[in-house]
Specification:
homodimer; 426 residues; 54% helix; four-stranded parallel β-sheet
């Protein structure tokens, strides 16, 4: 990525530290992703997506901003990108999955908040996030205590909009959410100076529905007896969906899906025929965070389903494309996002029934509940999920961890114990 | 408390363990509260309030239930007791402040959630909470991630109602809150079979406003140069307000306030004239939790203000008593509770300005921000509060701790360092 050195310097990044970061991420990516054998050829696009996330993608956004576009930084899949795109903005998810940046956040934020929040803040604070200086607006939400209160502080320092997600799913909550989405539309229109029209909104809805359909299609292949793609690769695809230009992403995924169909026909799979099938459920595993999938798959199992914000929660439920007015379409958008079954809701019964449902659909042998440390909502909800899985005799463990590599050995031991349990019971 | 042994046995408590608990609480109360010299005579009522919290108060509620009353267990000062009382229910706050019960919760709940939640659950799980078996309805709220998700689990096991508190303070949030309060009314009416009338609601509003006025009056004395009551005793008064019958509590506090007025006239104070004046700000310090106040005051300082749910947040803002219909009065109730400046809101600017305001009103020399471990909202908000205090040159420290007594030495060291700083700068 050396050719972007000048760009990074112009953005005010700490170029030396940033270089270290890229090398560390690159080394992890090499060890945890590129080292896999028999990868689909089409994965090159997504390897490039990761590789260019601090380079080409940033340059592309800088060029678009020079032509008048605005960039919006988001931290959650509840932010309706359709509306941002219809107003001519470029939404990019800025969630951090790197461990190196955590200590930079801990200098001024509590240590005992989740690693995702700390990693994200630490990237900005350490001047190693190229998006921080080109972001025209941050959009936070009220999905968890740690993020909600972090926005209070950030919004005093940089342009920031906070989207309130209600905590129940009653009619009055839907009303509040609809109004919040309306306010988000106004905030984005004010930022870009471009009005959201029905035509543009129909286009952006169609574009992001296409992305969802293609991701769902890729995940359909994972339901098959010998999946043509590893869980680690599928994760990389889903992670890059949060960063890469959506139209290009779709073209690339279309190509990959064709190849996967062909591999299915030919019986090509990265897994042994008897590899235990694992679902990872819970917190997102964002770009930079490939450890869990790598540990599971390098232990001889196959991750066949991700029940997370970097998995099913991201691509399930399409936005209804019917409706001709902006208001109707915005309602459709609001309704789609309100269906997401994040643990931030009380109660969240949909998820308690959905996880075992997914376990059956993907024919999984065991579930690994993945909880980021100090994420109270997924951590406590894991108790009910564990109960629901036990009721269906699906083996499961709950792993609570941060991004620290020092836990790798312990995690591997727990995963191997789970796999042994699964293999013995087959 | 031996005479209640049969009652506790009938309630299904673990009588032996319960006896240990009472002795442990009694020992702490002796060491941290009763050991103070020159206490007001009127404190005997509140000592009794603590002493009878597992005895006489429980018996009283059992007797009321035999006559048809229903008991509601609450966990937060956002629950509008006025409405419960108007429907003939007896609301009792069940928040736990004891350390012994924490491990009982940790057996089935995550360790890294706040000690208040764990202590509360642990009391119920260890069969040492006499209210658990006589509670007809639990009322939880969505004020923090840990509680919100805990209710998901409890509500599957015992009758439970969840009150959604919104996360912003816009008009649409107020609308949602008003509707939630309306739903709470219906839930309570259904429980008791008693309709809330304007007359009864006017009565309960007047009763709880009286309690607020008397607490405010007691706290006015703490603003004086030589407060006639220690912060530890004032805390005991506020803690018992959450348990004791409100009318009896008011009578007792009226008597105490008269005595305090007299002590002011006579110049009687438990403090040295030059004792540094401290405000404790942040998380509640509920019954069983007297350590922080004891440490501060046994180090020679005076706690003169509690900016917490067991302090200003409990008694500030009266419910408007005007209005003649149930709907008008319920709106008044909703509006009063919506003014509470809990850190669960985003943003929560009122509190950022209110803490330094209180610091001036109570002429404090320093602020101790008290954060229960893993309470993300107060923990992160502490950063902005610290900034606001620093801007006014008010010395402050933030203490993040659980209920563990093993931290006592460390806490004392930090408090002494703060007091030294304050004394040197005088």
């Amino acid at each position: 990525m050396g050719s972007y050195a000048e760009m990074w310097r112009n953005l005010g990044l700490d170029v030396e530290l940033h270089e270290e970061v890229l090398q560390s991420i690159g080394a992890n990516y090499g060890k945890q992703v590129l080292s896999q054998s028999g990868r689909p050829e089409g994965m090159r696009h997504f390897d490039e997506g990761v590789h260019e996330s601090h380079g080409g993608r940033v340059q592309e956004i800088i060029e678009a901003r020079e032509k008048g576009a605005k960039m919006i930084g988001t931290f959650c899949i509840y932010v309706p990108d359709e509306i941002a795109i219809a107003a001519g903005a470029i939404p990019v998810a800025l969630c951090g999955g790197t461990n190196f940046s955590v200590p930079y956040a801990e200098k001024s934020f509590p240590r005992d908040i989740c690693p995702l929040v700390k990693s994200t803040l630490g990237l900005a604070f350490s001047k190693t996030c190229p998006y921080a200086p080109i972001k025209d607006l941050g959009v936070g939400e009220s999905t968890c205590d740690a993020k909600k209160k972090t926005w209070d502080i950030l919004s005093k320092k940089v342009p920031f909009h906070i989207l309130e997600l209600p905590q129940k799913k009653n009619g009055r909550d839907m009303n509040l959410w609809r109004e919040e989405i309306g306010e988000f539309r106004s905030a984005v229109e004010e930022l870009t100076g471009v009005a959201v029209t029905a035509e543009k909104l129909k286009e952006s809805i169609a574009l992001l529905n296409r992305r969802r359909r293609l991701l769902a299609e890729m995940n359909e292949f994972r339901k098959l007896p010998n999946p043509p793609i590893s869980g680690t690769d599928a994760l990389v695809v889903m992670q890059t969906a949060l960063n890469v230009d959506p139209a290009r992403f779709c073209d690339n995924l279309e190509e990959l899906n064709e190849e996967l169909r062909d591999r299915v026909d030919k019986g090509i799979s990265p897994f042994d025929e008897n590899a235990p099938r694992i679902m990872v459920a819970g917190c997102p595993t964002v770009m930079g965070n490939w450890m869990l999938h790598h540990l599971i798959e390098s232990s001889g199992a196959a991750v066949v389903c991700d029940e997370s914000c970097t998995g099913t929660r991201f691509f399930e439920h399409l936005v209804d494309e019917s409706g001709d007015t902006v208001d109707e379409l915005i309602d459709n958008v609001a309704e789609r996002y309100f269906k997401i079954d994040c643990s931030c809701f009380t109660p969240n019964d949909e998820r308690i029934t959905h996880v075992p449902e997914l376990a059956r659909e993907y024919s999984v042998d065991a579930v690994v509940q993945y909880v980021l440390q100090y994420c109270h909502t997924y951590n406590i909800e894991a108790i009910r999920i564990a109960g629901a899985l036990q009721a269906e005799d699906i083996p499961a463990i709950t792993i609570e961890t941060d991004y620290g590599e020092e836990h790798e050995g312990q995690l591997r031991t727990r995963i191997e114990a789970l796999l042994e349990r699964v293999t013995l019971s087959v």
